[in-house]
Design goal:
two-stranded antiparallel ribbon; 479 residues; two-stranded antiparallel sheet; 21 helices; mainly alpha
């Protein structure tokens, strides 16, 4: 065996090194060691520093290569996607600091970092898979630790219930997906992506295989009608985990779905485009209508995430280079805006325990900086210029329009107006609605401030710095 093949997996090896270092460091951090003179001591600086180093040393794409007989496939575009996921994970670590400062979670901080990075490692394997077995191993490596993260606060709120719902629905969706993969193998006789294409002819069993496979992936991305778990899990999970689930998990699954549709199911493109067409309409429309009715902000953001997943799929449906560039850029911009919203939600939840929309009435009076960040983040999610969300929506609409889906783009535009209405409900609550007892004034910790500043830079800077989009476009369609 040629062990030099492992060098092609530099991102994975680097991440495994980070996990091992954190695991060893946690061995010397017993529950008693967290307390010094009655004060809880946190180790946030170590995972933040390690993730920063890991991201920087893997930022420059390498040359395309295959390893282990084609089971591992690497192209430069995958480094771009993994770097986006790294940045999102780093933001989650920064914003989780105050939550981990609680006495009941401080003793579990090591587990939180290891579980989070384990899911990220699974996403790496999914992205670089050239074989359905490697893809499925990556999928399960990402899903199982995620269930533990969702149930992390098992004695608070509905975290244990959310974890049970997540693992059960993940179980059924993985079963459907695996059954679809088995049908592909039964009709083609191979699981290598590059070899499957020659055997795809669109017979009924292969169409059924695609439907089962898409159902499993639809769960991961929270597409209608596979979205029913989302609101309950988002509400019950710790807010830091919810933010991770809403962006990092969704972004990786969307890119992998696009890659597999283009590489494996290319001969039946008309069939999967028709399925995507109706799923996109249902996801955007139904999620928007249900979001209007929500009062709990985490459930509100759950339906917002379902709607955003529909927009992300606009980049997939055309199967073009423009679509891939727009998808990755959209995920990057969505990451900055969504993390900004969850940063404010998390801080206010930790300080006051409030999560209802009415609790945000008059927030501008007591915490103007948090209200300002929340407003810019919501404007970016809604696609209002000149924020980055406007440009991300423009590019993803343009990619679908160029592929001939004119009516679909029009329906998405109409739904954008609806989404603007419900995002403005929060802005109205913060700036216009009166509240005799608003959320008390408080100062955020240094880690949360750093995370919010990064989000703010992303919301404003990603729309101005055209080099970001151009850099992504240079590597587009290299899958």
């Amino acid at each position: 065996m040629d062990y030099s093949q492992f060098l092609y997996m530099k991102e994975e090896l680097s991440l495994i090194a980070v996990i091992v270092i954190l695991l060893v460091a946690d061995l010397f951090m017993s529950p008693d060691a967290h307390k010094r003179d009655g004060k809880i001591t946190l180790n946030t600086i170590l995972p933040v520093a390690l993730m920063t180093i890991h991201t920087l040393i893997n930022l420059v794409p390498g040359a395309a290569a295959d390893a282990f007989g084609g089971m591992y496939h690497y192209v430069p575009m995958m480094t771009i996607v993994k770097s986006v996921l790294n940045i999102g994970t780093l933001l989650v670590f920064l914003l989780a600091h105050e939550w981990l400062a609680r006495e009941d979670t401080a003793i579990k901080q090591g587990e939180f970092y290891v579980l989070t990075l384990s899911t990220l490692l699974g996403m790496y394997f999914m992205i670089s898979a050239g074989h359905f077995l490697m893809f499925f191993i990556g999928l399960e490596t990402a899903s199982i630790p995620m269930a533990a993260l969702v149930a992390f606060d098992k004695y608070r709120h509905h975290s244990a219930e959310a974890g049970a719902k997540y693992i059960l629905t993940a179980l059924f969706s993985s079963g459907l997906l695996l059954y679809g993969i088995s049908l592909i193998y039964g009709t083609v006789g191979t699981l290598y992506f590059d070899d499957i294409v020659a055997g795809i002819n669109g017979n009924p069993m292969q169409i059924m295989a695609f439907v089962f496979f898409f159902a499993g992936m639809g769960f991961k991305i929270s597409l209608v009608p596979f979205h029913l778990w989302t609101a309950d899990v988002y509400e019950g999970a710790p807010t830091a985990v919810t933010s991770y689930l809403s962006v990092i998990s969704k972004g990786s699954a969307a890119f992998v779905l696009m890659a597999i549709l283009i590489k494996v199911f290319a001969p039946i493109v008309a069939q999967w485009q028709e399925v995507l067409y109706w799923v996109i309409i249902a996801s955007i429309t139904i999620a928007n209508l249900f979001a209007i009715r929500q009062q709990n902000l985490k459930r509100f953001m759950a339906f917002s995430a379902i709607s955003q997943a529909g927009y992300i799929m606009l980049g997939v449906i055309g199967g073009s280079a423009d679509g891939m560039t727009a998808l990755v850029y959209y995920v990057l911009v969505y990451l900055a805006a969504n993390m900004g919203v969850f940063a404010v939600i998390s801080i206010i939840e930790q300080r006051s325990g409030k999560l209802e929309m009415d609790d945000y009435n008059g927030l501008y009076q007591s915490n103007p900086k948090l209200a300002f960040l929340m407003t810019l983040s919501l404007f970016s999610l809604a696609g209002i210029p000149p924020f980055a969300g406007f440009f991300s929506k423009f590019f993803i609409f343009m990619s679908a329009f160029r592929s001939g889906f004119h009516l679909l783009v029009f329906i998405a535009l109409v739904n954008t107006v609806i989404s603007l209405y419900y995002y403005l409900l929060i802005v109205k609550a913060m700036y216009i609605n009166k509240n005799e007892t608003p959320v008390a004034t408080f100062r955020s910790d240094a880690y949360s401030k750093a995370g919010m500043i990064i989000c703010l830079i992303g919301i404003i800077g990603l729309g101005i710095a055209s080099i970001v989009y151009e850099t992504i476009n240079q590597f587009s369609f290299g899958i």
